[in-house]
Specification:
conserved putative lor/sdh protein from methanococcus maripaludis s2 fold, alpha+beta, Elongation Factor Tu (Ef-tu), domain 3, 6-stranded antiparallel β-barrel, 8-stranded antiparallel beta sheet
């Protein structure tokens, strides 16, 4: 009997659990129905929609993560766990760059700042970096005009500082010996003069002596060797090759004991009283650089010291990687402080400029295909304007087309506004193609 009662109690409990489950399921299904969901969402968004709807007409609602699907009522997004966002009539103007409206709270949260399009005549003072190089026009070459060999090398390595007239090498050149021997073989006689007076030696045949001296000059016999031969009457046992200018030996072509042929470069000497600075200027600024303009040079190795230079020429070549143009500047280097290879800063003077439109450079968004500026509407909202930019001077960019003076442009947060504008453009294009809500 007790066993029968236990079974009855268990059956009654099971029936009670089933009834409770059915009741919960019915309630859940009613709450999840479209009417119930709409009612719940409508009640949740009733106050903001009513407050904003009194001023602006809502066209539809959409999920920003799924903008191609439209809803005619507010509520929860079926795609993401978020509320559907309203799209107002004054925001959906269509076109390639529709207006974007941002609330005051969102503008403050995004840190949106605005500036003004100004018309001014800004002179582009150009700053560039460069390197010091030898002045190729201030170069001398020591080059014998006959065959011979080096008997002694006085300067044994490149990059040695030499003075004008300093001996670089002792050489033996047979052709010079023969020419000097023929010149000294001419008879000489004393000119008229008084007793005890030193008189110069005069040639018996002036024309012949003149021709032989001209031959020695053509062969390149050093003047010191010719003078020594006239004074002693003997041919020197070697000839000295001397530095024609004061500078640095940048190339040494021979070694001691080496033979050389006519035209061989024994040494190349660069003067250092003037040097070149090869500065790299942006190709958009190169047209503002003119030959003859003064340049202010500061070397990283001599901070605080200013060197003066002058633009020689703008080189006719653009670097394909850096998009810069070389500008060659001649710089006075009297103390010899500037050495080839040094890094320097070059400041070119500002040139006369004409009036044009300028905006802060931070307002320009360069996408690679175009440049855009976010324009703030007077009554609220933002537009995306495609612009043509010019040079940049002092943190401002010249605007050649796309804006007018006095317009307000966004300086920060414009990337988010541009993204929203592109999103609206995509929605408009989808709508024009026949997308249904």
């Amino acid at each position: 009997m007790s066993q029968y009662k236990n079974r009855t109690v268990m059956a009654v409990a099971l029936v009670a659990v089933l009834v409770a489950g059915i009741a919960v399921g019915v309630s859940w299904s009613r709450w999840r129905s479209p009417q119930g969901a709409a009612a719940v969402a409508s009640s949740a968004a009733s106050q903001p929609a009513a407050a904003d709807g009194a001023k602006r007409r809502v066209l539809y609602w959409h999920d920003p993560m799924k903008p191609d699907v439209r809803f005619d009522k507010p509520g929860k997004s079926p795609f993401m766990d978020m509320e559907l966002q309203p799209v107002y009539a004054d925001d959906d103007a269509g076109g390639e760059a529709p207006a974007v409206r941002v609330s005051a709270g969102a503008s403050q949260a995004l840190g949106i700042r605005v500036g003004t399009v100004e018309r001014a005549a800004l002179a582009p003072a150009i700053h560039a970096v460069g390197t010091v190089a030898y002045d190729e026009t201030a170069q001398a070459v020591v080059q014998p005009r006959a065959d011979g060999f080096v008997t002694r090398l006085r300067v044994r390595a490149p990059l040695v500082q030499v003075q004008k007239g300093e001996v670089l090498a002792d050489v033996d050149i047979p052709a010079w010996r023969e020419a000097l021997a023929e010149y000294l073989a001419l008879p000489l006689e004393s000119g008229p003069g008084g007793a005890g007076q030193a008189l110069p030696l005069l040639p018996h045949s002036p024309e012949l002596r003149m021709a032989l001296r001209q031959r020695l000059s053509v062969l390149g016999v050093p003047g010191a060797s010719l003078q020594h031969a006239e004074q002693t009457g003997t041919v020197p046992d070697h000839f000295e090759l001397t530095a024609p200018v004061t500078g640095v030996v940048t190339e040494l072509g021979l070694r001691e004991g080496a033979a050389f042929m006519n035209g061989t470069v024994v040494a190349r000497i660069n003067r250092t009283n003037t040097v070149w600075v090869d500065a790299q200027v942006l190709e958009t600024q190169a047209r503002a650089v003119t030959p003859g303009a003064p340049v202010r040079i500061q070397a990283h190795a001599h901070l605080g010291r200013v060197f003066t230079g002058q633009v020689l020429r703008v080189l006719p070549q653009v670097d394909s990687v850096t998009r810069t143009v070389g500008v060659r500047v001649a710089v006075l280097n009297g103390p010899g402080l500037l050495s080839p290879g040094m890094y320097v800063d070059a400041d070119f003077p500002a040139v006369k400029a004409t009036e044009q439109l300028w905006v802060p450079s931070e307002a320009v968004i360069a996408t690679g295909e175009r440049s855009v500026v976010i324009v703030a509407r007077p009554g609220g909202g933002f537009d995306v304007a495609t612009v043509t930019t010019g040079i940049e001077v002092g943190g401002k960019t010249a605007i050649l087309s796309g804006l007018t003076a006095g317009q307000s442009v966004v300086l920060s947060g414009q990337f988010l506004i541009d993204s929203e504008a592109n999103l609206k453009s995509a929605i408009n294009r989808l709508s024009a193609g026949g997308a249904s809500p």
